[in-house]
Amino acid sequence: MVAGYRAVLHLDVDSDATAVADVQFRAWVDKLSRDRRKTVGRIEWDRSGVYVLGPHSTLTVVEDHAVGGVHSLLLEYVESNDAGVWTTRLCASADPFDARQMLVFEGDGVGPDGEPAEPATARLVRDTLRAVAATDGAVPVFSDPVALEPAEADWLADIIESDRRVTCIALAPVVPGVPIERWRAIINSLTRDSWGCASFFVLDQEATRVIASRLGVAGLARPGSLRLLTPPAGAGSWGDDRRHPVFGVDVLSRELGENGRFSEDLVRRVSEVPRRYSREVGLPHGLAVTFDSLRRERDRLTYTPLS
């Protein structure tokens, strides 16, 4: 299994991916500076370089780097603490020829023993998804669970069946008698480590029936359960619970706390398949070339004093 986190997002062609990345990363670092658990004391940067933001926090910036006419930006934050060394990385690429605006989020961790460790998903990902519309190249990627209307069920079935989909879809049929918005808020507590890698949908009974009928799968997802659908999801694959894991009513009931939030263990377990698939699917070739070039430039940089 490949360790770490990765999410690849496509923005609207009228967006400027590098501007979005700069604005969102600055806002995220500003929030870190107000978190007493962090060591970020300074949040300014104005050009490519390596910046010391605090006793245990550094930021590396590679900007305005052109590869084949592509405007790109790399922002890499590294923090060390008693649990290890943690890296949050954002690469933005604006390709004027292919009209592509793309963001790549990555997270890596190294434990005290020097072994790879799974990082939490940075809130930077969620905040970006809340600020701009994004897709995986074919289907929407959302920051929060979507409460689906029955009239939208065919639309979701089309998304699930898309052979271009690279994002996991999570189906969460509502518990009978529970208001759908209440169930959506409860399911939202499951999404944290899956931001950017999975889109969650809360369904009422009729929407669930329509989708199951469209896909030809009886019992696709039962009320009060969660079903993950990993690409590609097509006829003949639904019986593979490793690719399309089910978290049953008993599991969700057991792991739901009195505060209406699911346990940290279940949050991690739900994220395992989406994270693994997103990391292993790799980067589009052009984006991989851009990212590699930015990394090489990063490795040549030295400490840059803040002016």
As residue ranges, the low-confidence spans are none
> Radius of gyration over alpha carbons?
20 Å
Shape: globular
The CATH architecture of the largest domain is 2-Layer Sandwich
Q: State the name of the first-level CATH class of the largest domain.
A: Alpha Beta
> Per DSSP, what share of the residues sits in E-state strands of 2 or more residues?
25-35%
Q: What level of helicity do the residues show?
A: 25-40%
List the domain count as a whole number: 2
Number of helices: 8
Distance from first to last alpha carbon = 43 Å
The CATH topology of the largest domain is Alpha-D-Glucose-1,6-Bisphosphate, Chain A, domain 4
Class by SSE composition: alpha+beta
On the 0-100 scale, what is the average pLDDT? Answer: 89
Number of strands: 14
Major β-sheet annotation: 9 strands, antiparallel
Helices and strands, in order, run as EHEEEEEEHEEEHEHEHEEHHH
Short characterization:
This protein is α+β, with helices and mostly antiparallel strands and 307 residues long. The protein has eight helices and 14 strands.
